[in-house]
Amino acid sequence: MLTEKDLQQIKNKGISAETVEKQIEHFKNGFPYINLVAPATKESGLHCYTDEEAAGLAAWFDEHFADYELIKFVPASGAASRMFKMLFEFMESWQGTPEDLEKYEADKSFNSTYNFFTNLHKFAFYNELKNVLGNAGYAINDLLEKKDFKIILEYFLTGKGMGYAQLPKGLLLFHNYEDEPRLAVEEHLVEGAHYATDKNGIARLHLTVSPDHQQKFEEAVAAKKGKYEKKYEVTFDISFSQQKPSTDTVAVDMNNEPFHDDDGTILFRPGGHGALIENLNDLNGEIVFIKNIDNVVPDRLKGETYLYKKVIGGLLMKLQEKTFDYLEALEDGNVNKEERQEIMEFAEKELNIFFPAAYDGYEDMEQIDFLYNRMNRPLRVCGMVKNEGEPGGGPFWVADEDENLSLQIVESSQINFDDPKQKEIVSKSTHFNPVDLVCGVRNFKGEQFDLKEYVDPETGFISIKSRNGKDLKAQELPGLWNGAMADWITVFVETPLITFNPVKTINDLLRPQHQPGE
């Protein structure tokens, strides 16, 4: 199946032939569906705190954060092109004919583009677009009045002007302020200054970026960080990494044979955000906050974000501190029956660790070994928001092939909706995943966990793509907060909906949460 030329190409990418063969087997056999047992709810598996309890955890964070090395990890490599899908479709079809004009004013299919142009002045990039058009000899108001929309879109989306469709989301202007508009990445700088700053006033941020955009990110950050260092009296330590070529996955044709390009080389594709477990593993951090690049709000709404970042951070610190104390005792081995019972109750109730029925029959040292091995793992506390119709994965209790239970973040693609029982479990779900995590990635001895050891390789995803007019199958690695963290200790916490404001389409920036307000 693999020729000598193929094997040499695979080796040059830093991938083993065995890895490629396993990926091909996954194409042939598919990935098994997740076995849902129940949704994680406030009755089981999800903490819902009162305002007073939340304030207490935030206070704990404020009192103890100086003891830790904090870092904010932002996956920022995604291109913004999908944000502009409806604008591209409009640009291709718009001719400005009387029929087009009539349809534009009346047809519901044009509601989104009508909304975009009608509210163009409300976007943070408006003045820049106005200036770019002006330099080319166009007045934006005249173009809008004459409905010369193609010219506006050409100078907005393409390299003829601002080139917004070729930029990553992090380098788009998201929000207006009195002094100047802010890029999405700037909002993460501001956030980092508030909850990812150590005792020396150093705010550490790490962004994963694509090779094509790293220089632009570096230039943007260099131009802006001084402003926020002065304003918040911090020093930023900002680093970047790229998805490793060794995490790319092989593409296959519809017969599950490696897909070869016209030049005879095998086509490899990026392995999805699950590949970033490698980047996370390379960080020299102790406690890591993870949040997507497009989930930011203006300063006027950041209060709840800061509060609940400290809530989940404070909870992780408290749980980790107690877990480490117990692990030190377990390592010594001198833990009597009453102490083991105390540790078991903590592990079961606070860390959601599953104990099989056979545990009670274990010998003393077997119980100690079980407790030690199950508690000596990376820990994550994940914010979950109430499900109000937004797309996204959710928190569930799941069972593995040995009927062991664990808490997992599950994507819809992992669920067998043809199974009535699984569909019913999903219907009872109350919360979904906004990607709001804080992670403890060192063990009780202060050593870094090897995060690659805690990945479930059976939780990938297969999709149909095309290249040069030919269909192919592509494979994504287990998602960063799904299968890539499947064997972590997981704790879920309800967070307010205001902490989830992603920008998936350009018109999302017109939502009240992304506008300056009164």
How many H/I helical runs? Answer: 16
Low-confidence stretches: none
Distance between the termini: 64 Å
User: Structural class given helices, strands, pairing?
Assistant: alpha/beta
Percent in helix: 25-40%
Calculate the mean pLDDT score and round it: 93
Shape: globular
Give the percentage of residues in beta strands.
Answer: 15-25%
Radius of gyration: 25 Å
**Number of beta-strand segments:** 18
* Biggest sheet architecture: 9 strands, mixed
Tell me what you see in this structure:
The protein is α/β, with parallel strands linked by helices and 518 residues long. The protein has a domain at 81-166. 36% of the residues lie in helices and 17% in strands. The protein has helices at residues 4-12, 17-29, 51-64, 85-93, 98-106, 111-118, 126-135, 140-146, 149-157, 184-195, 214-232, 277-282, 302-332, 337-349, 364-375, 420-427; strands at residues 35-39, 46-47, 70-75, 173-175, 182-183, 202-208, 235-241, 249-250, 268-269, 287-291, 379-386, 394-399, 405-410, 431-432, 436-440, 461-467, 470-476, 489-494. α10 (184-195) packs across α11 and α14 (337-349) packs parallel to α15 (364-375). The longest helix has 31 residues, at 302-332. The N and C termini lie far apart (64 Å). The mean pLDDT is 93.
Describe the SSE topology.
Elements: H1 4-12, H2 17-29, E1 35-39, E2 46-47, H3 51-64, E3 70-75, H4 85-93, H5 98-106, H6 111-118, H7 126-135, H8 140-146, H9 149-157, E4 173-175, E5 182-183, H10 184-195, E6 202-208, H11 214-232, E7 235-241, E8 249-250, E9 268-269, H12 277-282, E10 287-291, H13 302-332, H14 337-349, H15 364-375, E11 379-386, E12 394-399, E13 405-410, H16 420-427, E14 431-432, E15 436-440, E16 461-467, E17 470-476, E18 489-494
Parallel strand pairs: 2-18, 3-6, 3-10, 6-7, 11-18
Antiparallel strand pairs: 1-12, 4-5, 8-9, 10-15, 11-14, 11-15, 12-13, 16-17
